[in-house]
Amino acid sequence: MPTTMKKPDIEEFFRRLSEALPEPETELQYSNVYTLLVAVVLSAQATDVGVNRATKELFKTVDSPQKMIKLGEAGLIQHIKTIGLYRNKAKNVIALSRLLIEKHGGEVPRTREELQELPGVGRKTANVVLNVAFGEPTIAVDTHIFRVSNRTGLAPGKDVVAVEEKLEKVVPPKYRRHAHHWLILHGRYVCKARKPDCPACPVSDLCRFKAKTVVV
Prior knowledge:
The chain has ten helices and no strands.
């Protein structure tokens, strides 16, 4: 495991990422908070590209819990069957839609605890919704953030919760709002799993990863 990145380097790390992309956004497509929630639930163990392809037509007509329940589980499956675990996800989306109506007046709640009470919504999903929809400085640790945090020495940890807790401590307050997306996008397009693009990396000199790739 790389040595932990020092505080001044962490500050510079986020300064450079923010300079390159001042207003990062999720790559999931959505039209309101409800469709964002559904998209994030569907994105578990699936790519954003795959989810966007599946929801493109769905979200044109189904943009509320009421409309989703009217569509029904079988109808939803027809839209999302190209996504992994689609049967279970369809069941969860219908169930969470029903709970939103029964308990929250059809609105998506704004607390992590209430979000995690919804079927199919774990800590990561709740953190994404809180960050993207409500501007909370939460960090949802997915495989990209977990890899980048450990590989660079930014916030090493044995599991996603440990990494999340470490990131909450080390990310400078002014960068916390967008840290989630900077790290995901960096992991998705630069600090890739099999062959990180170290020559193109804007923070390569700050990174503690020893086995850096080089231009041949």
